[in-house]
Amino acid sequence: MKIVIAPDSFKESLTALEAATAIENGMKKVLPEATFVKVPMADGGEGTVQSLVDATGGKIITKTVTGPLGTPVQAFFGISGDEKTAVIEMAAASGLHLVPPGDRNPLITTTRGTGELIAAALDYGVEQIIIGIGGSATNDGGAGMARALGILLLDSDGKEIGEGGGALNSLASINLAGIDKRLNSVKIDVACDVDNPLTGMRGASYIFGPQKGAAQEMVELLDNNLHHFADIIRKDLGKDIEHVSGAGAAGGLGGGLMAFLSAELKRGVDIVLEATKLENHLIDADFVITGEGKIDGQTIFGKTPIGVARTSKRHNVPVIAIAGNVASDSEVVHEHGIDAVFSIVPGVITIEDAFENARTYVERIAANIASVVKLSK
Does the entry feature the keyword DNA-binding, yes or no (predicted)? Predict the structure, then answer.
């Protein structure tokens, strides 16, 4: 019997690899002769670097870069085991968690550190860079990122504009002459699970600006600045990103990556499925175990268990999911390829208990699932 184990992380308790190992340990108690294939998964958000590094036998690289407020921060990125792919979470360099609540100001926060991580990844000679763009502290349209890669953003006097979303109104021209030439031979995929355009009432500033410290007046200013930014990109680069789905992600970084690096925006879980080559592991599999911290009605919108299930169904492989929290509206996942759902929680327990003993609870439910499988044989 071949069992593929492909969970996401159980946030605040288990990484995807730790969850996969716990599932394997529990099932081995009942099915010791089975073949287990562990494929740690993610959906492009927090934990994606760790999951892809674990899935490919890669490594984590730490790097001191420019943080959102212009001060140094310790960030990281991943390199796959074959050293062909780099994986970056922009939040590691430009994330909201790096800015104390009282200091949050998207007029000045910058994505420069994310660009510095991209440059550092290029030093490894990679052929592909995967960038997850959730959790940003910024609203600069990726201007800081661009500048870190040699792109000049100039005002009407030919001088470089300042950092942050507040400086974009002074942009008069874009000069790509100094861009890092290594980017020409690298494929860049962006994990983006929002469809917000760059500007307007559903754009970066109005939807995400307030959580980054922007009051109403600042939101309007930031939106106007991004509109001006898009105009200059149209004029100098011949690209219209303003109303493209996903361009508003991460304060407009989605749009900036498309405009400056010709990046392609995709659903995060689809990028991870491709990078981990999950489909190859499904050949001759008897069933798949997936899961994450919570399964509910929102799981069907691009979350890991559904991505795994859809891929598995192409090979007619049954799918079982486990979760710490199985919500009352979770039944909808059965319409999208998940055949059964189990909660790892043994009863009424505290959150602290759930986090502290997650490994034990995952092993226990995995053993129970294996027992049911054994009875059916």
Answer: no
